[in-house]
Amino acid sequence: MSELYAGWEDEAAPVQSPSPTYRSSADGRLVSLSMPSPGVTAEAFLALAEGQERFFWEDVRDDILFAGFGVAAHLLAWGPERFAHVEAQARALFADALLLGPANRLAAPRLFGGFAFRDDFMPDNTWSVFHAAHFLLPHFQLVQAGDESWLTINALLPPEERDSGETLRDELSAALQARYDWLCDAARQERPAATLGASAPPLEVNYPMSYEAWAAMIQEAIRQIETTPLQKVVLARVAELRFRERIDVNGALAYLDRHYPDSYRFLFEPRPHHAFYGATPELLVRVSGQTLTTMAMAGSIRRSADPIEDAALGQALLNSAKDRHEHDLVVMSLLERLAPLTAQLEISPQPGVYKIANIQHLLTPVRGRLLEALGVLPVAAALHPTPALGGKPRALAMAFIQQVEPVPRGWYAAPVGWIDVHMDGAFAVAIRSAIAQERRVWLYAGAGIVADSEPDKEWEETALKFRPMLEALGVEESHERQP
Fold first, then answer.
1. For residues 58 and 296, what is the distance between their CA atoms, to the nearest angstrom?
2. I need a labelling partner for 263 at 20 to 30 A (CA). Which of 96, 110, 175, 256 fits?
3. Is the pLDDT confidence value at 73 over 70?
4. What is the residue-averaged pLDDT of the chain?
């Protein structure tokens, strides 16, 4: 365990960011060995890794899954240049990496992590083991894509042993084979179906912000929109749950896998039982070489079990002047921010409706070709936060959020994802998410505010957005007073 974490208790006090503005444990040479891993399941992989640092990412659109546990190296950064500092550290880590075994791009070493919503993030009790930018290279890494499955071991040689990687091949191979056999044995055993979350109802479900405070916050946002250049701001509120037993993150992920398969599902657990996880429908950016993929997602309405009513709700969303205006602000901002980086952009002239289990969103896919193969981080830095989670103009919206929101967002609504050895990667926007710490868990939900927003409707929208994570914890009722 890093000395940054040593001695921290569950009720850790806020800590000060260390100096300098970045820190890396990757001072040696990265050595990596991979092998095919048929028969290994992600469920067994994560279950057996419980009690260690764990990482998970699944994207059914690309039919790809990554998981990891243990830490071979960690990269940390703070401040306005945190994206660039992480990029510099990652490039140095991967520059002379020794990749042993069969050449397979999918199985190559991969960093997992993300960023806080704000670059001046300071960890509080809720986010005590997180940083403004935090990436980990797992000791053991699993990738599944289509019919392929690979297991990888990553190790960092001390500087004085940088040239001894090849001599460690047999040792690494034995360790990898032992881990593979262990995982296969676990996958073959009959395992009980994962629970929906905690084994008992919560002791407490608390919504710290009253409806009256929410309405006042929105009215102030509308006043700012009417009297300043602010055009849109996204405001969020929090739910806090306390349980008698430790949060069942595995069960929550299993629930999200069954009920929200079309979302990006993720887990980042940098310290055992301090886990940030979720099922977000929103991609911030995916970069492969010079190919860029992103989306504009803003504007929401509920689903209905009645197909006719559900279709009518979707059409009402498309016809809503308020939601179309909110969505158009996101689209225009994406184009403005991507224009200096791209040679070509392809964007649909009209949004479509994207339906997930309990909610429908307006969605405009965007594809482009970068002027050069920059990697994913410069593009993520240019896009975050989009008006879908921050506002427009960005600086005014971020200042307003900091002024009025009573609870820090931490990593909520921020980029979370992965980076490969080519500096390509993918980041989702961490909404529909929860931060679990032992027996407590915090949920976040936000709504985009424009000039004609109505507080009661925005309150109902956030209540709808709380539902996936509440249900994943086995909470059927919100216990919240409606306006």
1. 20
2. 110
3. yes
4. 88
Domain coordinates in residue numbering, the chain: 22-188, 204-248+281-472
State both tokens at 464.
């709808």
pLDDT of 199: 55
Choose which CATH entry (3.90.1800.10, 1.20.1440.20, 3.40.630.10, 3.60.120.10) describes domain 204-248+281-472: 3.60.120.10
Residue 282 appears among annotated catalytic residues: yes
Of the residues 53, 87, 232, 269, which is catalytic?
232
Q: What is the pLDDT of residue 169?
A: 85
Q: Tell me, what DSSP letter sits at residue 454?
A: -
User: Does the N-terminal peptide bond of residue 385 adopt cis geometry, omega within 30 degrees of 0?
Assistant: yes
Per-residue pLDDT tens digits for 221-259:
999 999 999 999 999 999 999 999 999 999 999 999 999
- Whether the predicted pLDDT of 194 surpasses 60: no
Rg over alpha carbons for the chain, rounded to the nearest Å, is: 22
Catalytic residue status for 232:
yes
Rounded CA separation 77/397 (Å) = 24
Single out the catalytic residue among 53, 87, 269, 282.
282
Q: Is residue 78 a contact partner of residue 68, using CB atoms and an 8 Å limit?
A: no
